[in-house]
Amino acid sequence: MTQSRIRGILTVIGLTAVMWILEFLDVLFGNALDTYGIQPRDINELGDIFLAPFLHFGFQHLIANTLPLLVLGALVAFSGLGRFAAASLIIIIVSGLGVWFISPASSTTLGASGLVFGYFGYLVLRGFVERKTSDIVIMICVLIFYGTMIFGVLPANEGVSWQAHLFGFLGGLLAAYLLPKRQRPAPLTGGYGASGSYGGYGGY
What we know:
- By secondary structure, the chain is mostly helical.
- It has one domain: Rhomboid-like (Rhomboid-like fold).
- It is 57% helix and 0% strand.
- Helix 4 packs parallel to helix 6.
- The longest helix is centred in the N-terminal third of the chain and has 26 residues.
- The C terminus is likely disordered.
């Protein structure tokens, strides 16, 4: 495993740990951090789209997001730290803006579910874009174990932000499409009778 991949996976673990620390602080200070959720169409609150994914409405909310965030985030990070960071930023922006534009005016949206759905969308489309065995295998496994997530982009339970799910998913698709393909290394060449071979793929 390359250093970039290791750093990417450690970053996922670190981000998840930060979410837990923030939730402990939120409880300690009487849910004061919940005010940093996304307030639709309030221009003064637009910057909160970068904070909201790391905050949650209680530990039950955080627990529900933790495992899929770790699993799907680690699979994205397997492409390398740079690609993980770029994909995460695209997902956060698209998901946050979608919530900001179309969520009900009186709502406040927090949570990592936009990222979770974004990583899901990224991994599914990346298998088609890259057309590499590893990406296709990951895509198939994600569809098998998390395929029912797709229904979360539809309006369903009251109090659940389907807007964050939908636009997070779209952000993941956009990231998979926009980020450049990982280049295959050039074949090695040698003298008489030498044959070329492909080495491992580096992270982005």
